[in-house]
Structures are given as C-alpha cells and as structure tokens.
Design goal:
GO terms for molecular function: acyltransferase activity, transferring groups other than amino-acyl groups. InterPro entries: Acyl_CoA_acyltransferase, GNAT_dom, N-acetyltransferase. The protein is of the alpha+beta class. The chain has 5 helices and 8 strands. It has one domain: 3-Layer(aba) Sandwich (Aminopeptidase), CATH 3.40.630. The longest helix is centred in the middle third of the chain and has 17 residues.
C-alpha cells in the first residue's frame, strides 16, 4: 500500500505497550507511525533544539524508524512513541539511544507543541529512566541539550539529572550533557 507521497507502508502486528504512566502509553514505534513521526520531526519549532536544529525529511524519518526497529531487536531498547491515553493520539517520542559523540546511552524526547508545559515530557522521561536503569540495568543515562533550551534543562532537573560536562556535539554546536545513575533511582522503583 502506498500513501499519498509514494512511501510504501507495510503493516505489522499490533504493537504492545512497553510502559504506562497515569496519562501516557509508551510503545514501540513501527513503520505504521511514519507519517505521525514525520509530522513531529518536520516541525521547525519543535526540532530547533534537536540534532542539528533542522527538520527531518520523510526519508530521514523512514531511516530512523528502520534503525529504531533494529535497536529493539539488537539492544532491547530504542526510541518509542508517546501516546496520550485520553484519545490514543501519538503526541511525541521518548527513548534511549546510543550517542556516538560521547559513547553513552542518552535519553531523548520531543512532544508536539500543544503538549508542552503540561508535565508530559517529565512523566514520559521518568518512566523511560526507570525502564533504563531498573529493567535494562544500565549503570547511567545521559541527556544532551542546547544550553539555550531552558525548558529541557528544567525537565532534566526534575528527573534528577546532574550537569556532567559541556562540549560541542557531532554537529559542532555547544551542548550541555547531564547524567543520572542507577544509584540515584529511588529505592521503591527498583
């Protein structure tokens, strides 16, 4: 089956919910999410603090989905769809990915603009940290942000991350790296 812009779609099995919070489902991404993920990743305002600060093309999103599906199989984690429980709408993504730039696992997240300032990124991020440190047994998780992105800096603070270091990222942009360790995870979540 082809969608309007000629991108072949292959339908897969139902995707199981990986994680759940009071307001969100966090589930695996699939090729069926291509257009929804593209809508998020092609938004100039949303993407200004992600990667090189430029929106992604449909081809880049398709490749990212392919890498993500491979990561589920080979690493046991990756990037996930964040879905609003109230209407089942995919409102963003959140996940754990390998950063070549620092040779560490990083927390990533982005939500559609209309879902900003509602605590949803913090809610999804907290569940993903618990998943990474408790279930996958990572020793630490990093997160990288543009120093100008005060909203993400606040989210990372709420999640328990501490400033680790600053350096240029793979695109040459000044970047602040934050870190959280398994020892920082509350005992009741282990």
């Amino acid at each position: 089956m082809d969608i309007a812009i000629g991108v072949p779609i292959e339908f897969k099995r139902e995707i199981e919910i990986v994680l759940e919070t009071p307001r969100l489902y966090i589930r695996e991404l699939s090729v069926n999410d291509l257009m929804e993920l593209y809508a998020i990743c092609s938004d100039e305002v949303l993407m200004q603090f992600v990667g090189d600060g430029k929106p992604l093309s449909i081809e880049q999103v398709r490749e990212w989905l392919s890498v993500t599906e491979n990561n589920y199989k080979t690493k046991g984690f990756g990037n996930y769809a964040v879905v609003n429980k109230s209407d089942n709408e995919m409102i963003g993504y959140c996940g754990l990915v390998y950063s070549k730039n620092i040779d560490k696992i990083e927390l990533i997240y982005a939500l559609k603009k209309q879902y900003w300032n509602l605590g949803l990124a913090t809610e999804a991020g907290a569940k993903m940290i618990e998943f990474g440190l408790d279930r996958i047994k990572l020793d630490e998780i990093y997160a990288s942000i543009d120093p100008e992105n005060k909203a993400s800096e606040n989210i990372l603070g709420k999640l328990g991350f501490s400033f680790a270091f600053g350096q240029n990222d793979e695109f040459g942009y000044s970047t602040h790296y934050y870190r959280i360790t398994a020892k920082q995870l509350p005992a009741d979540s282990r």
